[in-house]
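Closing statement on the iron/sulfur cluster sub-project.
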Amino acid sequence: MKIAFLTLGCKLNYAETSTYERGFLQAGWEAVSPKEKADVYLINTCSVTATSDSKSRNLIRKVHRLNPLAYIVVTGCSAQLRRQEIEGIDGVSRVFGAHEKQNVVSETLEAVRGGHGFRSAATAGTDGVFGAFSTGERTRSFLKVQDGCSNCCAYCTVPYARGESRNIPISECLAGARAIAAEGVKEIVLTGVNTGDFGRTTGESFPDLLKALNEVEGIERYRISSIEPNLLTEETVAWIASGTKFQPHFHIPLQSGSDEILRKMGRRYDTAAFYDKLSMVRRLMEAPGRLKVFFGIDLMTGLPGESEALFRESCDFVRSCAPAFIHVFPYSRRPGTPAASMPGQVSEEVKRERVAVLEELCAELHGDFVAAHRGMHARVLFESKEKDGSMGGYTENYIRVTRPWDPSLSGQIADVVI
Ligand code: SF4
């Protein structure tokens, strides 16, 4: 049987698709390109913005045109949030919601072996946490350690799409890390929706998870894909700074540099607390002559009520934090969220202008961050792809570097001068 996989969205989705793929390959199926005619198409959807929803629907229609007889499986956040709508699209055979992921492979194998069948009555509420990790990439792998979120930020649909916060037991995370190491991969990116909230369903703690993973043979580097500022504790940072495999690289969602907007969003910190958090990490992890910590921050613009003055306030605060990178998001009005009915909705045109301002600020801050490391020594994990006679990789603090292609360095960590 030929199956093709199409994935939209975040690292979590890629780890989950990669795990589904391993299940079908173990069953003797062949994975083919989504451009090819396949017997089954599995689409892992995203619903973070209205655009991602429509992209998800378009992918379904595209593969149905490619093979009108194919069995089409739809999973992911759009499948959870827009189930009926998706079940109504021509060609859709089976939709799996957030709590049915562990059944995707087994039920699809059964359905296809048992011949085509359309089933709408989904079994909801099986609260298992679907463990997942990505493979097939020689340099780094995404390891899912947590899912869902129990916060309810005013603009966000993720808790509705992925459910309440829950985590994979440490023992299963370790098994995943060892399987990744067995593939010769040296770097793991811990991923989740609210990764720092690890331990909510097993009673284990986030620091315990990090300490256990740090002992896994073969893995030389870990990165934490994203962690809420209020969940990054001094204890964790002090341990990371004590000489571990966890890199000086933190992705921390700020969302706004205005306290008034943070309150509207329902975020759990203000700008002073956020600034103190970065200062704490810098105090524990930075020293003259040492690589600086790479802070990547998420920043949203255009939340209802974000006046020009509040936007300027947000920009000034971000500049004072001097992050290395800003992931910029225009606010997307999501049905069912508190922000969707807030007064003072900002026009798409104004959002586009503000995104452009923030992307310019990001380019400036990132340029300053990289320039500050010129001439410094670093260790780079080189990727296995040759491009135009050169190869690339990331330093410990996530600076991208390139050098002339040398196959002996592919997938290896090497000393460099930036
Ligand atoms: S913490 Fe993140 S995932 Fe959770 S509700 Fe807020 S924005 Fe959404």
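Residues 149, 151-153, 156, 158-159, 193-194, 228 surround iron/sulfur cluster (CB under 6 Å). With this model delivered, the sub-project is considered complete and its resources will be redirected to Aim 3.
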